[in-house]
Amino acid sequence: MEEKEQKKYLKEKEKLVTKVGYLQRVLKEYKVPVMIVFEGVHASGKGRLSNELLLALDSRYTKFYATHAPTETERRKPFLWQYFVNSPSHQEIYIYYRSWYSLYIAMKNNIIKDSLYDGSKLLLQEIRNFEKTLRNDGTELIKFYVDIEEDKQKEHIRRMYDNPRTMWKAQEYDRDNDEDYKREMEKIVLEDQNSWHRIKYETSFVSVNEVLETIVNRLEKRLKKEKKRAEEEPEKRDGFFNGKYPDILKKYEGNHDLSKEDYKDRLDRLQKEMRDIQYTLYERKIPLILVFEGWDAAGKGGNIKRIIQQLDPTGYEISTTAAPTDIELRHHYLWRFWKQVPKTGHISIYDRSWYGRVMVERVEGFASNKDVERAYEEINDFETSLTNFGAIVLKFFIHISKEEQLKRFEARQADENKVWKITDEDWRNREKWDLYEEAINDMLDKTNIKKAPWLVINGNNKRYARITVLETVITACTERFLDK
Amino acid sequence: MEEKEQKKYLKEKEKLVTKVGYLQRVLKEYKVPVMIVFEGVHASGKGRLSNELLLALDSRYTKFYATHAPTETERRKPFLWQYFVNSPSHQEIYIYYRSWYSLYIAMKNNIIKDSLYDGSKLLLQEIRNFEKTLRNDGTELIKFYVDIEEDKQKEHIRRMYDNPRTMWKAQEYDRDNDEDYKREMEKIVLEDQNSWHRIKYETSFVSVNEVLETIVNRLEKRLKKEKKRAEEEPEKRDGFFNGKYPDILKKYEGNHDLSKEDYKDRLDRLQKEMRDIQYTLYERKIPLILVFEGWDAAGKGGNIKRIIQQLDPTGYEISTTAAPTDIELRHHYLWRFWKQVPKTGHISIYDRSWYGRVMVERVEGFASNKDVERAYEEINDFETSLTNFGAIVLKFFIHISKEEQLKRFEARQADENKVWKITDEDWRNREKWDLYEEAINDMLDKTNIKKAPWLVINGNNKRYARITVLETVITACTERFLDK
């Protein structure tokens, strides 16, 4: 290219860089997370292109994520774990150098061994869910597929061979033939053409500008949408949907009894059995996820204690769910739960969980009605990712009557060692019992998927509840052990 | 043990559990982080003891950290990285099942290969610095060494052999002889007796209570101290020390010139050289850490851009340092920088850094004078950990004159594409020029360690500064490449 033409391109680039910078600053105000994906064959110039983009952005709000062969840790987590965890907050742009598509192809072609996934049929579905979940949450997702003519590619690689410092990298390219990658990517791009921008790499002058221009167009379009939306009425957040829901809780009322001696004997036996189960889970690399939800003072904590009492502490974690931190509030609400997903062979126990979205956040109006309605499907997708990964997922709702709750509140208030457990918030929540009842029944109805069932436990009698929970966990695990 | 005696122990335990729970709640209000370490030989009962402790604590504010053979990721980070990153916030208790001592012994005995550390002589020093840094920051560190009589240990292991579900674990114990571990730990405990609590494991009844009682005593003592401290006058935070400091900045004043053509030629050559250096760093697994500090508008960002312009984006990261998040504020101020420490072979560039502690936090009184004075040593220790790990650490301070800053502020304000870069805060900082000058000179004086030197660059001429920084980086890397 002549110097004169080069200068023309550089001048154009300068303008584009200014525009991209401007758009990044404005969209940050609108809290738009942006994900930009670069897929492409070896030596196609995607490193150059993504680096130029990185230079054009404000490094305080931009991250570059290079996809790598999964580490030990990542291989012990569900398929898309690394990408969910490494996704932008509401003020950031993330650039992905190779992405979940590369990971998918590598897993499909069995380059990545030791995976819990048999076959790849579910993985594309998980990718679709992942992108949908983030898009629905407001993420702008821009995907580039960079291609290059074969002789240009060869020339790039030859130049790397000629430099003694980069020779090792060129050799890596030779070893790691990417014909498979190219064939798969072409198929993916072809089947979903509208969501991909195809770049045929020319020179850095031409192609950098093409990338920048595409991004400017996409972000300008998005900005227009955001401005329009800002003028619309805010979404309702009163927690009321159609007012119809099946009364599931009702089926689990009444009283059970269990004598103290009977309880003690059974508890000890079940706890020892639970410890043995832990070792088998560990040996067979099966993750066990136990979710505990329930009314205040229903006895979630007491149930959890009985489960872990004889366990090996190096193999379980308890996750408690408090109010989200500032960073967590700037992400999809499932982000913090993705971060805590257990690794293979471990037991993860949740004392409250992601279901806060459809309970307290619904009742208190922290989330809009639309967000809540969307959450049921997202939660089902999330849990399906966990069961696809091989996890046993059991969700307990500990149900007590309104009278029983009052009795327990008053008992706590009277005991100097327990009075700290009861707060004004508990009393306020109690006043909203009916609203919670509605939300809970909706939740039990809409998120009771076969592989991750809800188990409502009558908790009016603590001893009965503890024994029942332990028995349920043990039975589910034992069935799985027989399964495969 | 007779049943009657067992009951006595259980009753005593209940009281201790109540006390521990109370102390945890109160010390949380005083913002005391607590670390509890369990070291001990195989089958000594430390799992049982630490699990009982875990059950006694409030799971919302307690974490259990099990030391494991370092993962790939951990092996590419400095020695104590995993423990610094996994340390409690000001409201948490962390229990360590095996700890940095186990890791040290494993590295010393060369069980852990692939390490960048030659020899172990520096590692004990790093442990001392680590504990000192956290203790000075208010951490209560309680260390248990659990021992057991040989025949009791054998009995424990035999029982594991007899259970088909735990047999594999007993076999692991047999394979992994821990004679070395025991010898080393005995030495460590003997040399520092005051800081260790030795538990001779009897039965779970006796030993659990012994552990709980020790913790109650330690925490009660600490609580007393905290109550006393609360009555004392708050620490000064005016940023004034003795008012004497060497005027280091003065040596780097004046003007340099560099013609545009000369600049362009040299820049292009140096950037290509920098790219080659990146490949060599990667191949030789050497981390490169570049810290950029300087006056507002000194040109830190422009300097950084010139360094990365031709680099491979998969091998460098830019860390910008904004105001800390709520979680970061609840940890030692170095915590967030430990989290970002680069892995082997990568380049990490800091646009502002941990030096904020001794600049803005000193000048604005966000940290007390005592905290700031302590910070110099802590920073030196931190950077020494990085250089021990094999990192090249270079710290640039870009110095411009007060007049030059004014010119740049005004130019930014006049340019519609740059006006966003200048904020009221910049003008406020400018008014405190003299205070900053004092803080900067102190910093340059007290943290200029040989392996991680300060390089003051005159930035009045941007072109000169950029070329000088690039040349400095290239020279330092080239020297290292010749070194070994």
TrEMBL record, chains A, B:
Coiled coil spans: 209-236
Range of residues in the leader sequence: none
Pfam families in UniProt: PPK2
InterPro entries associated with the record: P-loop_NTPase, PPK2-related
A GO MF label: transferase activity
Domain Polyphosphate kinase-2-related: from-to ranges: 5-225, 258-477
Presence of keyword Protease: no
Swiss-Prot/TrEMBL keywords: Coiled coil, Transferase
Transmembrane feature ranges: none
Protein name (database record): Polyphosphate:AMP phosphotransferase
Protein's organism: Proteiniclasticum ruminis
